[in-house]
Request: fold
Amino acid sequence: MAVCVAVIAKENYPLYIRSIPTENELKFHYMVHTSLDVVDEKISAMGKALVDQRELYLGLLYPTEDYKVYPSHQSPCVESTFPNQLCRYGYVTNSKVKFVMVVDSSNTALRDNEIRSMFRKLHNSYTDVMCNPFYNPGDRIHSRAFDSMVTSMMIQVC
Amino acid sequence: MMSKTDAEIRFGNPAELHGTKVQIPYLITEKNTFKRMDDEDKQETQSPTMSPLASPPSSPPHYQRVPLSHGYSKLRSSTEQMHPAPYEARQPLVQPEGPSSGAPGAKPPRHKASLIRSFSVEREPHDNSSNYPDEPWRITEEQREYYVNQFRSLQPDPSSFISGSVAKNFFTKSKLSIPELSYIWELSDADCDGALTLPEFCAAFHLIVARKNGYPLPEGLPPTLQPEYLQAAFPKPKRECTLFDSYSESMPANQQPRDLNRMEKLSIKDTADFPVPTQDVTSDDKQEQNKTRLALKSTADEALPKDMSEDPATSKDSNSLKARPRSRSYSSTSIEEAMKRGEDPPTPPPRPQKTHSRASSLDLNKVFQPSVPATKSGLLPPPPALPPRPCPSQISHHNVNSERSAHPKPPTQLPNYGDFRLQKQSEQVSEAEIHPQLNRAPSQVAESSPTKKDIPHSQPPSKPIRRKFRPENSATESQEPPSTVGGPVSAASGKPHAAVQKQSSKQKKAIQTAIRKNKEANAVLARLNSELQQQLKEVHQERIALENQLEQLRPVTVL
Reply:
């Protein structure tokens, strides 16, 4: 269950961020922000010849106190013993737009493929938003379709 | 909180509502909030959506909508106002008004009329029979025509797209806020390709118009604005309407997903299509009046039920895509056939020119004129419009004459012609030149176009040859040679022309030399004549003088 979904622009400012437990929204914001560093690190580490979607998917980013963040290419994650283990996953598009998803790992049924499919849906919805001529790249995403899709992700995984 | 009550009511309603129009609580952005109060008086579309708590809607189209959790709606309520309240108010209206859609339908069109006039469109309260009680989202014919015209102003080809930027500029003129326009686009661009087809454009335009009229934007594309619906269910225009042709053109365009490629083919042949498609019969009931169109429509209709029955959001595009190639194949064949029918049969190949029996004289005249300025050259340019047929016959006659009568004596033949020509009236030399040239030209023409000469034509040329010679004779005022020539001409009908041509070339040279000689002789004789005449004059004068002297001497003696 995705507890937070964020779309970060190329310049590392959020285009869209939404989390379910609104009371911890700020925390999620921070979390996403910190994960950006990891994302950038991964991007730079990958090099320039990466156009594969596999590369787009960054996997678990890095571990934190409350949440478990798995880096895709780094060493295996450090599992924390906290009950609410939230995993952060990253995904980068070719245009350097980053998707960060924080997932509650209490539901361990979430496999890598599921995460990938969720990111794929995110990416598709994002491109649909881009297709809207009234959307200026760099604006915050207010698309209802996008919202609904994110909501579905949050609900389904719940 | 209102949201809670609304949600409860809402979720209770689905079970009651038939043809479910479940309003899932969805927080609309601020753009709709200020319209809420007005909305309660108006009927609002109840787009069927999937609700986790409600039974799946039975209405065919499904939108790209995701059921929101009840709790989630609460979350958002703090920041945004709930829109469902007006929806709830209308929901009870929806059901009873479903069957009797006339009354509520009257209201929205009136409201719309005020706005629509701003767009210079007049609406009439018009309720089309439909399964959807969402009157505000139904496009009337007048609206449709207006939209189509606007579409055409942006994109002449009704079957093609309007690009995003063009549409953006156009819709920005409506002075709606950008977020609203963005949302409208999101609703109407069903396939999310960044471009608007005609039905998408109509839907977007309709949404804009409704929005301007104060209707809150729906959460999902109403069923009546969906492209399939727009293409299938839109009432056919009246045939008497002058916009009919353009409208009918737009109608197949409205079946855009299927007809897109097809119409692109047809766009070039629009004018030809309309009489042609009338021959095609459409099988759709809705297209009763519109029997014209294209057989494509029948195929499109076949595709439509499939589309309607399937899930809209994701499968819609795939269905439309599937339908496109299908319709394309049908349409291409039918249209091509229709076009073939409509086309005139190919013009028959030009008939081969036959002997211009009567035109031979005219041709000779033509030969005369161009040949006059021509000098004595070996090869004269053939006259432009000279049919060769008489010429070879003439030449054949020449050759025949040379062969038969005068073959051993070509000079006799030539001098015959030469005398024949010398007997001309005024300018013997010029005429002599003309006729030899005339003979040359026909011979040349004959040589240049041997293929045109046909043996069977030899007999008819005999007659024209006579006629040819007659104008010559008339010009030359000689009569004997034509008779003599006519004789051998008739007898020479059977000669092959190939041999004649060879002989004609030889004859040409001989004739040319003879001509030169004759000319020289003429010149000499002319000089002689002049000299002699002068001498004669002198002699006369001497004689006169002598007679005078004699008379002077005589009277003296005669007395």
